[in-house]
Task: structure prediction
Amino acid sequence: MIQFYAPDIADTLTLPESDSQHAVRVLRLREGDELTVVDGKGRRYRCVITGAHQRHTTVEILSSETLLPSWSGEIVAAVAPSKHLDRMEWMTEKLTEIGVDRIIPLLCRRSERRELKPERLEKIAVAAMKQSLKAVLPVVEPMTPVGEVTARYAGAQALIAYCDRSIPRRELVATYRSGAPVTAIMIGPEGDFAPEEIKAALDAGWKPVALGPERLRTETAALRAVDAIHILDQYRSITDNPEI
Result:
């Protein structure tokens, strides 16, 4: 199945230019051909083309369905971008495929990359959403100071992963609890969080976690953490419903 993305498809009945070009120029679709469109908000539409145009293909909606995320609660990945932007792009793609609701690039004291335009990451997230047959597009925020994220999610299930062994941590699998309305995981830069950033998070109620004995790249740590959350949720679902 090939999915197209049109956030306002229910109102406009029109594909955006990029998806129109892909449908008409690449796939050679014409009037009367059917296609599948998602709006990034959880709805998938079965449509038929009424006007094939390279810039604004129009459609008629034949049916629609709601595709809720396969995980419960909101998952937030707040990650300090690495120096090489291609790693952040790869991470955004993979987090979208695995399943996440929000991606927040963190600005930390030791961040090597201090500026980031979210538009490129948003395009990568759209492509990954379509490829993985999801209908919910994760929110990609602008670069946000770590202190703002610390305060924002202080009341959630907030987990901070760091490398400093002098500050006690517990393994994520021993700390995470399924069923929370919001789970936020915060991953520091290549040089780790500064001690005062860790202290501020712990004082705000964030729980310190480790992601295993290895030293991981920032983007790898984010993937391991989010994937572990999904696995733990699936395990809970199976144990709560043995007939599954």
